[in-house]
Write a structure and sequence with these properties.
Blueprint lengths: L188 H8 L43 E2 L17 E2 L15 H9 L17 H12 L6 H9 L3 H15 L3 H8 L2 H10 L3 H13 L6 H8 L4 H15 L3 H8 L2 H11 L11 H14 L8 H10 L2 H15 L3 H8 L2 H29 L6 H10 L5 H12 L3 H8 L2 H11 L4
Parallel strand pairs: 1-2
Helix pairs in contact: 3-4, 3-5, 4-21, 7-18, 7-21, 8-9, 8-10, 9-17, 11-12, 12-14, 13-14, 13-15, 15-17, 16-17, 17-18, 17-19, 20-21
Length: about 600
């Protein structure tokens, strides 16, 4: 099958004028001026061919002829046609460039369209400038937007928020399932209300957590109460003005009544400022709570204990185990009651019966436990100065380590039992600067406040340096003034400043500058200032180290500290000598004497 030639087949009989006749133009030649030529097709007035339709010839039908070589669509514009799916506006006439594709998911950038406002196109309505409303009667092209810098209209999403429910499924569908409504709004209710009221949007505390609706419709939604000016009303209790409340101790209203705040809450008065020296003194105190190993027994029956004492010492022999158990587990106050009750019940002195039944170190230790604390110290001082010679170690241990109150009680007991003045006895038994130190201790006038004066500490540290390390010889009087009268917290500060000035420890300087009993007395004060339990731990260790045991010193320290700080002494002993006091006593003593000491010390640390 062949296609007809272009222009169709010639009509029957051939084309007019073909073959050419004389006097007529040939086929294909232009018609003569003024007439002739081919007749115009019927139906078009005015002759000639109709103008082609705008936009060119329609495309040929399927299976039709190939497109003609002439005519066709107008040339494309210089900037090309807009991509499919872009703007809804056709390109303007004249081949101008189309509008650029809008940004993904949004509106044109602020400032309008590139190249000016879009031109009007027949059949389309030019959009109003961005941020302005279209003229009346004209449908809006883009959604109406407020002007730049204005708040969005009520009910609209804030600036920057995506239109609708961003990322949510279409209405009536669930995520991943058709037919369910979308979840609650992404914009919090408080934010939407704030926008509607032209208020700044306040983000919730947990911005990343969605608002959780109540699980059950019957449960009320409790709004958080944020109010400082609202009165707090207790349930079922009347609201009472705070000014009218009868205040309890400490300025608090009675329990069970809630006071209503009539205004901003009143602030409590600031605590009275403490002087820096007082604050430093409280920080400098190293006196921790102490504990004794012997505590009162509960319940306590003095008559029952007296019957046990009588039974243990009656007849031939003595039940030492019963005596040790009774005396090691009663406090000193309870022992004094036992002595009085025993004499009331049996008309005999318990101390005399014990002396008749016991002997040696066991007797000494048991009798010491039946003496009151001040009387036992006075007894030890009298014993240290009795006869030929003086036990200076005992004088130092007692007078340089006791408090003012304890020294006053010791002086009274010494005067009562031995009819002598303690100070005069010390003067008669000692000499030199050591005598002056003991006289200073007998005054019981040491400053026991907790305040620390750092300026004073620095000055006195300099005085100690000038009186010792800095000069040839030593001014013992200056050391006596400071060490015998200053409080322990103040002395700690002075010792610290002395180390900075002299680059030596105060104890080292005393060992270098002093000698004899005076050195021992000053060192005892320094050690007690720093750590009193450690001082007594050293005494205990020295009483048992080497060949033999100084039982008098061992008994004195154990008995006198049993109800004060023996627990801390045991810890200090273990810390310094890496051996428990219990184990040390167990290896250096024996028999019932050992069992009594171990019963007082206790096995634990």
């Amino acid at each position: 099958m062949s296609y007809p030639p272009p222009g169709g087949y010639p009509p029957p009989g051939g084309y007019p004028g073909y073959p050419p006749q004389p006097g007529q133009p040939g086929y294909g030649a232009p018609p003569p001026p003024g007439g002739g030529g081919y007749p115009p097709p019927a139906g078009y007035p005015g002759g000639g061919y109709p103008p082609p339709a705008t936009g060119g010839y329609p495309p040929p039908a399927t299976g039709g002829y190939p497109p003609p070589a002439t005519g066709g669509y107008p040339p494309p514009p210089a900037s090309g046609y807009p991509p499919p799916g872009g703007s809804n506006y056709p390109p303007p006439p004249g081949g101008g460039g189309g509008y650029p594709p809008p940004a993904s998911g949004g509106y044109p950038a602020p400032g309008g369209y590139p190249g000016g406002a879009p031109q009007a196109v027949p059949g389309f309505t030019a959009p109003a400038p961005y941020g302005q409303q279209p003229p009346p009667g004209q449908p809006p092209s883009y959604p109406a937007q407020p002007g730049y810098g204005q708040q969005p209209p009520p009910g609209a999403a804030p600036y920057g928020a995506p239109p609708g429910q961003y990322g949510a499924p279409a209405p009536g569908q669930m995520y991943g399932q058709p037919g369910a409504p979308p979840p609650a709004a992404y914009v919090p209710v408080a934010a939407a209300a704030a926008v509607a009221a032209d208020l700044p949007v306040v983000e919730p505390v947990a911005a990343d957590l969605p608002l959780v609706e109540p699980a059950a419709a019957d449960l009320p939604v409790v709004e958080p109460v944020v109010a400082t000016d609202l009165p707090v009303v207790a349930t079922d209790l009347p609201v009472v003005e705070s000014e009218k409340l009868p205040e309890e101790a400490g300025g608090r209203p009675p329990a069970g009544v809630a006071a209503a705040a009539s205004g901003p809450p009143r602030q409590a008065p600031a605590p009275a400022s403490q002087p820096p020296t007082a604050a430093m003194g409280s920080l400098a105190i190293n006196e921790q709570a102490t504990h004794g190993t012997v505590v009162p027994i509960r319940p306590f029956d003095a008559e029952a204990d007296c019957e046990l004492y009588r039974k243990a010492m009656r007849g031939a022999g003595t039940d030492e185990a019963t005596l040790i158990n009774l005396i090691a587990t009663r406090s000193n106050e309870q022992r004094q009651k036992i002595k009085l009750t025993y004499k009331t019940m049996y008309g005999k002195d318990l101390i005399r019966d014990i002396k008749s039944e016991l002997s040696g170190n066991l007797e000494e230790c048991m009798l010491a436990l039946f003496m009151s604390g001040p009387y036992y110290d006075a007894h030890q001082l009298h014993r240290a100065m009795k006869g030929a010679g003086t036990d200076e170690t005992t004088l130092i241990e007692i007078l340089c380590t006791r408090t003012n109150k304890e020294i006053e009680a010791i002086k009274a007991e010494f005067k009562k039992n031995y009819h002598k003045d303690l100070e005069k006895s010390c003067v008669s038994e000692t000499s030199g600067h050591f005598k002056r130190l003991l006289v200073s201790m007998c005054q019981a006038n040491r400053d026991e406040s907790t305040n620390v004066d750092m300026a004073k500490a620095t000055k006195e540290a300099q005085d100690l340096f000038q009186a010792g390390e800095k000069k040839w010889g030593t001014d013992e009087s200056r050391f006596n003034v400071i060490l015998a009268s200053r409080s322990f917290p103040q002395l700690r500060a002075t010792f610290s400043e002395y180390t900075k000035i002299s680059q030596r420890d105060i104890a080292n300087s005393i060992q270098r500058e002093m000698s004899g009993d005076l050195k021992g007395g000053f060192l005892a004060i320094v050690e007690c200032v720093r750590n009193r339990p450690m001082f007594f731990a050293d005494r205990l260790y020295k009483s048992m180290k080497g060949a033999g045991t100084n039982d008098s010193n061992l008994i004195r320290v154990v008995v006198s500290r049993s109800e004060i700080d023996l627990v801390e002494i045991k810890k200090a002993f273990l810390e310094r000598y890496h051996k428990t006091l219990y184990k040390m006593i167990e290896g250096d003593t024996s028999g019932d004497y050992k069992r009594l000491l171990l019963g007082i010390v206790g096995q634990g640390v």
